[in-house]
Amino acid sequence: MIRPDFQEYLPSYYFSSVNPHTVYPKLQCRLKTDTCIIGGGLSGLCTALPLAEQGHETVVLEAARIGFGASGRSGGQVISDYACGMEEIEKQVGLERAQWFWQQSLQAVELVDERVRKYAIDCDWQRGYATVAIRPQHWEELQQWHEHAQKYYGATHYQLWDNTELKQQLDSDMYQGAQFDPLSGHLHPLNYTLGVAAAAAEVGAQIFEHSPMIR
Fold it and tell me: N or C: which end of the chain has fewer CB within 10 A?
């Protein structure tokens, strides 16, 4: 028995602005497959898509709806770097290994861009992300990171804006300055997730909703 709150998407801005999309059937028969993926969020779908592209028989089982959870209700930010910051990663694994992690984060952003274009996913994908500094100390730290990122990570795409340059983009006197990243960006997470599902189905993955894994 599927819980009542799993029957349909929960109310959110993203659901209220969702594109028309496929409703996938419930699994009601026996299937044999190369790969069975549990969960129709981004992790599951972004595993299913390349497998199906390579010709593997792939089944995705989702207990509720595709993108029902965090994948369809996130902030929609697609940003290089990591939440803990590269300095913390450097402390834990060293600079050389941290540089590898940095490249992975850049490639992840490019992978999103590539999939949006390849499969014409209508998800309001927009490049450009600014990290703003409110206090003078934050501005100093942002400038230090900007210099460090250029020197050790080759991050020449970053732009450093003082408060005058920032105000041309953001009409506010609250901020000391900003670091602008033209490669990172934002998208509509539910429409992107549904678009990845449609792409996976298009290349042969079988997707089932309201089909929890019970044993």
Answer: C
